[in-house]
Amino acid sequence: MSGKKYTEEHQVVYYETNVTGRLNIGNLVDLCMLVSTIQSEKLGVSTEKLDEMGYGWIVTQNLIDVTRLPKEHEKIKITTVAKSYNRYFCYRDFYMHDENNQEIVHMHTVFALMDKKQRKIARIKDEIIGPYEGEYTTKLERLANPRAVEKVDYDKRYRVRFMDIDSNQHVNNIHYFDWMLDTLPEEFLKTHEVQHFNIVYKNEVRYGEVVDSKTEFLQDENVSLHQITVGDKLSCVAEVKWQPLK
Question: What family, per the record (predicted)?
Answer without folding.
Answer: Belongs to the acyl-ACP thioesterase family.
